[in-house]
Amino acid sequence: MSGAVFLEGEKIELRTVEKNDRDFIRDNVNRPEYRRNLFGSKPENSSQIKENFIEEFVEEKENPTFIVTVEGKRAGLVALREEKPYKAEIGIWITDEKRRNGFGKEAVELALEYSFNQLNHHRIFARILETNNASIRMFENLGFTREGTERDSFYAEGEYQDVLLLSILEDERS
Amino acid sequence: MSGAVFLEGENVNLTTIEEEDLEFIRDSFNHPEVRKGIWVRNPRNLDQEKEWFEEEVSDEDTVNLLISEEEQPVGTISLEPQEGVKETAEIGLHIHPDYQGNGYGTEACEMLIEHGFMNFNYNKIFAKVLADNKPSIRLWEKLGFEKEGELREHVYTRGKHRKVLIFGVLKNEWVSQ
Questions:
Q1: Which of A2, A71, A156, B31 is 20 to 30 A (C-alpha) from B167?
Q2: pTM for this prediction
Q3: A80–B contact, CB cutoff 8 A
Q4: Which residues touch A92 (CB under 8 Å, ≥6 apart)?
Q5: How far is C-alpha B115 from the chain's CA centre?
């Protein structure tokens, strides 16, 4: 199946993103109920996922990105977009079938530990649509602080919506 | 494993790295246990290993070989000439955690060091190692390398800035031992 195991948790593993993950990614990021939370508005086909995401974002820019797997099966994706050597934005999604099992939380925990302990980051932040309560709760449970609001920052379903900014600093980890 | 045997040992051979070996190399270099001993930063997928294969393995200067036990790849080893210096080379290796503790690393190093001194006419071969990587330090000491220096707080890994040591062996020391 897919990539090499890079980080191991209790319930999940984080693996390298490979070209053959592209249809899994495509099928999930295009789902109507997901794409709003991922700030997507245009359709993305398999070749766009391959070129824009896997080849450019993952391979060329070397943003640490992982497929979340549970017992070897794909369950989601977590990515760190390095904005500066000391800070990165984190993004996460888990497939519908695998939600509410704590997999997303564990994936973010593993990514955070890697980010702070291995990449020497100081600040990790997340941008979350204000209506995405499940995500906001998860990041707050992980010790992220709600630090600001981007007013009317995203347009979807006929209206402008606020985007919340949450962050955690290296000395705030629990 | 499908490459040609380049150096033949008792328990392991050093064989050419072929494209089919990249999956083993990817799985091994991303392995959490392997990354504790080295300071590879980011995850690397198969495409990135292919790029490494095309640009570096197939490059003429650096020697990169697969360490194989019969048909099974167990690790990799490399000997890289220093830029602008033709008498000194840096050696590096890794063994997949499933195959550690069998002396494969020692044997692989012996073969490649011998080859470096006798066929490339190097005068010195050195290695860099994390100061807390005890098994690796023991390996260089066992092979007759001397500790030459310390690079203070040289790399950030596992939550802190860590020291890197340099170990080296000279041709006349190698020949006489």
A1: B31
A2: 0.85
A3: no
A4: A76, A77, A78, A79, A104, A107, A108, A111, A135
A5: 14
